Amino acid sequence: MKIKQLEIFAIDLPLVEPFIVSYDTYPSMPSIIVKLTTECGLVGWGESVPDDHVTGETFEGTYAVIKDRLAPKLIGANPMEFEKIHELMDKLVKDAPAAKAAIDIACFDVTGKKLGVPVYQLIGGRYHEKFPVTHVLSIGEPEKMAREAEERVGEGYRSFKMKVGRDVASDVARIQAVRERVGIDIAIRVDVNQGWKNSGNTLQALQALQGAGLDWLEQPVVADDIDAMVEIKSKTTVPVMIDEGLCGVRDMREIIAKRAADKVNIKLMKCGGIYPAMKLAAMAEMAGMECQIGSMLESSVGSSAGFHVAFSKKVMTSVELTGPLKFSKDIGDLKASYKIPFIELGAGKGLGVKVDEGILAELTQYSDVVKG
Predict the structure, then answer these.
(1) Packed helices 82-92 and 97-115: angle between N→C axes, nearest 10 degrees
(2) Helix, strand, coil tally for the chain in percent (to 5)
């Protein structure tokens, strides 16, 4: 099996409401979709959602890397040879993980379809039967976040990820408001997205939140300050998770060596796709750290890829892949798999996602085709 053609689509996914994190507000979510076609006529779908705050990749630059650097050299390659595919991409471009993720995901999708199995059967087989779905609360006023949390509990949600990171005082008020509204039996995970900057601010916040019963605290300090994570971990009983501070193998080696986290958030867009994500999960497992699969708010394509990784590994204890629930229009049908409060992944071939090419065309801003 050889790659015959790669089509690249720049799309804009409409959100039900703006997604607000510490460093930006997203009224909609730009995404790059890749359609890989083989000489035997099989199609694999991939997705790239770059984030210049996290991976250092702009949307325009990522599109150009896929179109001009990666795609032309992949024509004629065997998409089933994942190690060779990544070796080739790494020789062509240093880093650029979100760009490589789109190719990686498309290769896994088409390989699963060729062999007639779900992607999770290619990477260890299915381990988990279902995962709880965590609702993500965008940054807002305390009362607004508390009201939304209360409404979601009424819909069946049992866990929340709270986006904070504006300043310690207002963030503490947000967290306390949500906890007071939903009660102590509901799980609350706090994601600061680097917004508290340093260990001093973070420890001040944790002291004020001693009675809040947090599941864990995610990336409170700037991404490259691993030593601050070490200090925070040594001075609190709240489990700490690294997200933006973990992109690839080099980061993971330092995190393990310094025992800088209890948990790690692996995202396909940060590490380069399914194949590199499995390597990071294996490293974390050997170090005794739990893993989560997170996302940059991908469509059904990228979200499904993340779920296949999560469902195949024992070390994966949580997922936060909520893109299909937050989009008012999606190119795929993964939303049907969310059975609140759980996600139940099907057994379809490849990613198991049916892409609606009519909606894809409707959301496309511009596109290109690379042929052999």
Answers:
(1) 160
(2) 40, 25, 35
What pLDDT sits at residue 279? 98
The parts of the chain modelled with pLDDT lower than 70 are none
Domains and CATH numbers, the chain: 3-116+354-371 (3.30.390.10), 121-343 (3.20.20.120)
Residues 6+ apart with CB under 8 A from 212: 175, 176, 179, 188
Cβ atoms of 244 and 218 within 8 Å: the answer is no
- Sorted by sequence, the CB contacts under 8 Å of residue 23 that are 6+ apart come out as 53, 165, 193, 194, 195
How far apart CA 120 and CA 131 sit, in angstroms, is 15
Residue 364 CA to residue 280 CA, distance in Å, equals 33
Where in the sequence numbering do the catalytic residues fall? 163, 191, 218, 243, 267
CB atoms within 10 A of CB 121: 16
- The counts of H helices and E strands in the chain are 14, 15
Q: Which two tokens stand for residue 249?
A: 């193998």
The pLDDT tens digits for 165-194 are 999 999 999 999 999 999 999 999 999 999
pLDDT of residue 372: 81
Q: 55-66: b or e for each residue (b if 16 or more CB lie within 10 Å)?
A: bebebeebbebb
CA-to-CA separations, 249 to 186, 255, 278, 279, 368, in angstroms, rounded: 34, 10, 11, 8, 32
User: In 260-331, which ranges are E strands?
Assistant: 263-267, 290-294, 316-319
> What is the model's pLDDT at position 285?
98
SS3 243: coil
How many residues in total does the chain contain? 372
Place of tokens 């986006």: 163
The amino acid sitting at 60 is: E
Whole-number pLDDT of residue 25: 93
